[in-house]
């Protein structure tokens, strides 16, 4: 054998592509604004928290070992957040509980690509996570309006009793387009969103 | 032929492996501490959660016992249709039986079991039915939550004589209960589970209140 196959660790994919893939596991919970908001916040906390903790790892711990350590850290942070939510925010846990573990894959994809100084890693993770958060929220708004004809439904379960008045019904729920609420609707909505962004970019270029 | 691969394990590898083990130990310690700190609270939340729902079915002023502690378990697959033990909460007032609430399971939901609370008074009449947990398709199978929110309340006051036992089914199956538009399996599963709870009540009504708390009724 002359050419040893190169083992490529983590190809440097463009960040928006990674962020796009990182979105997928969480997409299902973007069916209402409160759900999308809570999932996005949880993801932000995990991304920033695990990157910060990973920053204290010694620099020589990189490559496969570094990834293993990072995976351990991310899963630990996610489990911790899941326990804390279960104990102190039971309403949020009711709607998000089973989806919280999915954040692991989500965040690993975001954090993995950054092998820089701790501060740079932190800013990169934070901006990517913020991008994912923004996309989740946009999808949440779109899907809740299309699927249920409402805005901020059930927000008191998420944010406490003061939020009960935030719920606005725009049109009768029966008129809602079911696809908006069902999981496949999330992917269709995401596709539409990206088509829209691309269209905006093209217009700008002209 | 390529050279024999290096067999000696380098120092860096050992140090690296040790580092991973250390990270794992630190993670385990942190998580077990957090688990201990949250456990009691999580348990209290769960009790509070179920108590709120029990109170919706049998209001607190209609009973005076500690309903969360006054429980028995039913293990009766042939009557209840589930092999899982069913928790039965007993409501009493001044020592007199008021109602039982069965935390039962409709095993044949569209996308998995549906957890129900079925409240039955001493006469065998339904006080109410609540869905605790389900995985039914949003918008279709979960219409009892929104579009058909008057569906579950219709069980109130029903018993095995009203409608007659053979009409305890959804309309498509020749019964008295409406199905949902686009979803028959979910209502069918719920009606069946409620009927089974009533049948269990009829068969075991003698022992339901006499059994020691914590005992299993078969």
Provide a brief overview of the structure:
The complex is a heterodimer of chains A (206) and B (218). Chain A is 65% helix and 2% strand.
Fold and architecture overview:
The complex is a heterodimer of chains A (206) and B (218). With 206 residues, chain A is an all-alpha fold. Chain A has one domain (15-205). Chain A is built from eight helices and two strands. Chain A has a two-stranded antiparallel sheet with strand order 1-2. In chain A, helix 1 packs antiparallel against helix 5 (103-112), helix 2 packs across helix 5 and helix 2 runs antiparallel to helix 6. The longest helix of chain A is centred in the middle third of the chain and has 31 residues, at 118-148. Chain A is globular and about 60 Å long. The relative contact order of chain A is 0.16. By secondary structure, chain B is of the alpha+beta class. Chain B has helices at residues 11-57, 77-80, 185-208; strands at residues 71-74, 86-93, 96-106, 114-121, 126-133, 216-217. In chain B, 28% of the residues are buried. The model of chain B has no long low-confidence stretch (mean pLDDT 88). The interface between A and B is medium-sized, with 28 and 25 residues.
Which key features would you list for this structure?
heterodimer, A: 206 residues, mainly alpha, two-stranded antiparallel ribbon, 8 helices, globular, disordered N terminus, B: 218 residues, alpha+beta, 2 domains, six-stranded mixed sheet, 3 helices, 6 strands, 34% helix
For the terminal residues of chain B, how far apart are their CA atoms?
72 Å
Instruction: Domain count of chain A, please report it.
Output: 1
Strand share of the residues of chain A? under 5%
Round the mean pLDDT of chain B to the nearest integer and report it.
Answer: 88
Spatial strand order of the main sheet of chain A = 1-2
Low-confidence stretches of chain A: 1-11
Fraction in helix of chain A: 55-70%
């Amino acid at each position: 054998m002359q050419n040893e196959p190169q083992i490529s660790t983590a190809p440097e994919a463009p960040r928006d592509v990674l962020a796009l893939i990182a979105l997928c596991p969480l997409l299902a919970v973007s069916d209402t604004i409160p759900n999308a908001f809570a999932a996005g916040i949880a993801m932000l906390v995990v991304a920033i928290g695990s990157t910060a903790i990973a920053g204290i790892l010694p620099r020589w711990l990189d490559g496969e070992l570094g990834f293993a350590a990072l995976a351990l850290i991310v899963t630990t942070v996610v489990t911790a957040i899941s326990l804390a939510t279960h104990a102190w925010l039971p309403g949020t846990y009711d709607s998000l509980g089973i989806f919280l573990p999915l954040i692991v894959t989500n965040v690993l994809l975001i954090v993995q690509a950054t092998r820089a100084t701790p501060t740079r890693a932190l800013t990169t993770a934070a901006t990517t996570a913020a991008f994912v958060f923004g996309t989740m929220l946009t999808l949440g708004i779109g899907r809740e309006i299309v699927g249920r004809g409402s805005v901020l439904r059930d927000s008191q379960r998420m944010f406490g009793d003061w939020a009960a008045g935030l719920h606005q019904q725009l049109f009768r729920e029966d008129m809602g387009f079911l696809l908006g609420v069902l999981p496949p609707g999330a992917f269709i909505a995401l596709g539409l969103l990206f088509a829209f962004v691309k269209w905006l970019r093209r217009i700008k270029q002209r | 032929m390529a050279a024999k691969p290096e067999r000696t394990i380098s120092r860096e590898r050992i140090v690296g492996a040790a580092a991973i083990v250390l990270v794992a130990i630190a993670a385990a310690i942190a998580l077990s501490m957090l688990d201990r700190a949250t456990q009691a609270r999580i348990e209290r939340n769960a009790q509070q959660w179920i108590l709120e729902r029990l109170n919706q079915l049998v209001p607190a002023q209609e009973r005076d016992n500690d309903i969360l502690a006054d429980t028995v378990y039913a293990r009766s697959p042939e009557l209840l249709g589930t092999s899982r033990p069913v928790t039965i909460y007993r409501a009493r007032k001044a020592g007199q039986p008021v109602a039982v609430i069965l935390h039962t399971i409709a095993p044949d939901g569209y996308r998995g079991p549906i957890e129900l609370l079925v409240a039955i008074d001493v006469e065998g009449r339904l006080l109410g039915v609540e869905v605790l947990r389900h995985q039914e398709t949003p918008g279709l199978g979960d219409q009892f939550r929104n579009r058909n929110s008057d569906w579950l309340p219709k069980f109130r006051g029903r018993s095995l004589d009203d409608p007659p036992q053979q009409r305890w089914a959804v309309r498509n199956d020749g019964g008295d209960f409406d199905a949902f538009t686009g979803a028959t399996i979910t209502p069918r599963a719920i009606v069946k589970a409620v009927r089974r709870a009533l049948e269990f009540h009829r068969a075991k009504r003698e022992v339901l209140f006499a059994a020691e708390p914590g005992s299993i009724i078969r």
